[in-house]
Every structure is written in C-alpha cells, then in structure tokens.
UniProtKB/TrEMBL annotation:
Molecular function via GO: transferase activity
Lineage: superkingdom: Eukaryota
Spans through the membrane: 12-27
Protein name stated in the entry: Glycosyl transferase, group 1
Pfam family, one: Glyco_trans_1_4
SUPFAM superfamilies assigned: UDP-Glycosyltransferase/glycogen phosphorylase (SSF53756)
Gene3D superfamilies with a match to the protein in the record: Glycogen Phosphorylase B (3.40.50.2000)
Keyword annotations of the record: Membrane, Transferase, Transmembrane, Transmembrane helix
The species this protein was found in: Bathycoccus prasinos
C-alpha cells in the first residue's frame, strides 16, 4: 500500500511540475529573457519555435493569474494584444455595447523636389477673418473596394496619448463609410489587418497567417524610431554608433515577415528609420495623423487682438523628457509675462513647479478643444517627435505655432508658424508671429481625417488587389 501511495505522489508531483513549467515558460520573465537575447537568437526563436510558444502563450493568457479578472470572451478579444495594451473595460467592440458608447469611442503626401515636405490638407484660414466660420471640407465616402478591416489596438478613453486619439478618429471615419471594423480579433471574412509597431502579439497572428496559406494581409503603421522616441537619441548625430534599440529591431522582424505595406506618420520618421538602416517592406505611404474635426476646428474661436496679452498654450499627455519641459521652465523664468500669458494642459514631471505658467491636468478632447480656440499661439517644444497629435489639434483649431526644429513639426506647421533651435530664440519668434498673426493663421493647413482615411484605404486596397 505504501508503495502505491508513493507512486501516486510522484505522479502528482510530475504533473504539478509540468504545469508550473508550462506556466513559467510563458511568463513575462520568459518573454523578457527572450527579448533581451542577442538579435540572431531572437530571430531563430521566432522562426523555429513558433508553435511551441503559441500553445504556451495561449495557456498563460487564458489560465494565468494576471487575467483572472477577465471573462473568457474578454480573454479571447485580448488574445492578440501585448502586455502593454491589456484589456481595458468600458470600450465597446463590434456588436456590443450601447449605440452612444460605440459612436463615441469606436469611434499622401508629396515631395516638392526641393527637399521640403508638403503634406496634404485643407486651408483653415483662407480669406476669412480670424474666428470666422471655416466651411467644412467635403467628406469622402470612397471605400476603394475595402469592405472590412481588422485593427489591433486597445482604445482608451481620453485623455490618452496621441496615437490613441488618431486611431479613434480614423476608425470612426471608416465606420461612417460603412466599412466593418473588427478590433483585436481575427475573424472569418476579414482579410486585412492593421497593427502599430510592436504593440500586438505576433505568435497568434503568425498561426492564423500560416493557416490562411499566407493570404491574410498586415498593414504596418510605423513611427518612431524607438531609438529616438524612447531613448532620446538622434540618428543624425549617432547613427554611426553600433547601438540600436531592440524595439526597432523587433518592429522590422515583424515588418519583414508579414507586412504587405508600411504607413509612416511623417517623412521625418521614415527618414530617421532609413538612417538607422531599416528597410520597410511592401507598399510605402506617408500619411500625417489627423483629428476628429467635429471636435477640433477653428469655428467660433476667440478673435485675435494686439490690445491685450497674447495667449500662448501648450499641451502634452506625456511628461517625458522629449516633451520640452526644460524649455517651458526656461520660459517660466525669462518670458515677458507683461506681454504674454502661458497655459499648459497635461501631465507635468514630478517636482516641477512653475511661477508664471498656469497648468491644468489632462482633460478630455471635448474640454481641450475650446481651450485651444480661446488661445492665440501654440508652442510645440517637443523634440525628436514623429507626428505630434497635440500639434495637429492646435493647428486644426487655427493656432499659429512656434515649434522646436529638427523633427516632424515642420511637415505639419509648414508656413503656419516659426521654428527655433534654442529656447533663447523663442521670445523673438513669438514677437514675429504676433506681428504677422493673420498671415501665419491663414497659412495653416492640416490633413483632415477624411483625407487620412483615403490614404489608408488606398493602401488596404493595394494590398488586397
């Protein structure tokens, strides 16, 4: 009898050990070790261990403690999402939620040959006076033959980052055109999907991709590079050094394996990626981010006057170093506040206090938009910035801009403002914009969400053809 009990205990221990080993194999620690491995080892693992990792990943995702608060359906919907984009309650997926919630939350550019980039868009100022009604642009209803698409992105309730804001506006526009949009799931009948950089789980997509006979299509939405956006390095100065961001390497492993097309948010972003030696695959398109123009517009904005203080505004969801807080601090100490008011909306680094600049925590788009229309000039102090959504929102609201040179800002502002290299140059640039305010305002042009949707849909159609 004792021998039988001992044998059963051993079997139980083996079973428990196998379960624990399977869970550990697919834990975040394993993923971090795999990501930290040398490049050639990571590539080998992705090529040679796909199916083992997939089965283990499914096990951890559906039975791990980190997802114990989710229903089985929610686990299914988040199966294709990475750790950084886990399920957030409150968002309605296709066919779920009430109509009001769905309506709100599911809710090309050319080179002129002279080395300057001129994005597409419509004039905001035109020949009208400041504050006059800007006639709505003509919406496109074209689908280019695209009937359905899948999007891998967890939509977050604003206030949130710029990429989230743009994708909300883009999906809302797709649905206005009666295009079926499926979020974070692969479903029968949907042949083309879009993903951002590395913010989705690759192995489940690879499995579906292979099962389809490689007929599924992936449009890869790119910006960065992470080399700049996360590590504050400038490829123009440091590309000759051997260091590369592993996130960028991973982006292009995914891109080269799956992408039928690559969409960059700015030519600056494309140039910086190319400078680091990366080669995007498939059809290539550059489409600037756009905003929901039912929220961000210049209709009814406060008229400009030189008989009062000029109102400057800046905004940012992130409190990261690249967002220009050192510049804001310099202005707080040196700007002539008898001539100017300065208001900032967003997150501020811990411990940073301003004497003269007024601050407000992040607010929803509906609250931010009227604030932009009440101010005169926008200050875009961020650097190494691919395509600032905060800047697009300000321009769409009719605000001439003073901006930090050396990133994607110039493509967005064009002739609608002035650039600076050092904070000490900002006061003179502000004086210049005040002097010629109406001229700069009339020069503002932004890419509309309708035009952005046309650009994306043309790429989808090319992939499906």
């Amino acid at each position: 009898m004792g021998a039988i009990i001992t044998k059963r205990r051993k079997r139980l221990l083996v079973l428990v050990g196998a379960i624990f080993g399977l869970y550990y194999y697919t834990s975040e620690n394993f993923e971090r070790r795999n990501a930290a491995a040398p490049v050639h080892q990571q590539h080998h693992r992705r090529r040679g261990e796909n199916h083992h990792q997939l089965r283990g990943g499914n096990f951890a995702h559906f039975f791990g403690r980190s997802n114990s608060n989710l229903s089985f359906r929610e686990k299914q919907l988040t199966h294709l999402l990475g750790v950084e984009n886990e399920w957030q309650p409150g968002f309605s997926f296709v066919g779920t939620g009430n109509a009001e919630e769905r309506g709100r939350f599911l809710n090309m550019s050319k080179d002129d040959g002279d080395g300057t980039y001129d994005g597409i868009g419509i004039g905001l100022g035109g020949e009208t006076n400041a504050g006059a009604h800007n006639p709505a642009h003509e919406n496109s209803d074209k689908t280019f033959g695209v009937k359905s698409i899948g999007v891998f992105h967890v939509f977050r309730k604003p206030p949130w980052g710029g990429g989230n804001q743009f994708l909300m506006a883009l999906v809302k526009e797709f649905r206005r055109r009666k295009i079926k949009v499926v979020e974070n799931a692969i479903v029968p009948g949907v042949k083309i999907y879009m993903a951002n950089a590395v913010t989705f789980k690759v192995d489940p997509f690879r499995e579906a991709f292979l099962k389809s006979g490689k007929k599924l299509k992936l449009v890869h939405r790119l910006d960065g590079p992470y080399y700049s956006a996360r590590y504050n390095k400038d490829p123009r100065k440091e590309a000759n050094l051997p260091y590369r961001a592993r996130e960028d390497d991973r982006v292009y492993w995914i891109n080269n394996e799956f992408a039928c097309a690559s969409i960059f948010q700015s030519k600056w972003s494309y140039d910086m990626n190319k400078m680091l030696g990366y080669d995007p695959k498939g059809y290539l398109q550059i489409v600037n981010n756009a905003v929901d123009d039912t929220i961000f517009h210049n209709r009814g904005r406060q008229p400009f006057s030189r008989l009062r203080k000029t109102k400057i505004m800046a905004s940012s969801w992130s409190s990261g170093e690249r967002k220009g807080f050192k510049t804001f601090k310099w202005l707080d100490d040196n700007l002539d506040f008898t001539k100017y008011e300065f208001f900032f909306s967003g997150n501020v680094p811990d411990g940073m206090v301003f004497k003269n600049i007024k601050t407000l925590p992040p607010v929803t788009s509906e609250k931010l938009a009227p604030m932009l229309r009440e101010h005169d000039i926008f200050l875009a102090a961020s650097y190494l910035e691919p395509c600032s959504n905060a800047l697009v929102e300000a321009l769409a609201s009719g605000m001439p801009t003073v901006y930090q040179s050396g990133s994607g800002h110039a493509e967005l502002v064009k002739a609608g403002g002035r650039s600076y290299r050092r904070p000490e140059e900002i006061p003179a640039m502000l004086d210049e914009v005040v002097l010629r305010f109406e001229e700069y305002q009339n020069n503002i042009r932004v890419t509309t969400v309708s035009e952005a949707a046309d650009g994306y849909l043309q790429v989808y159609a090319a992939c499906l053809s």
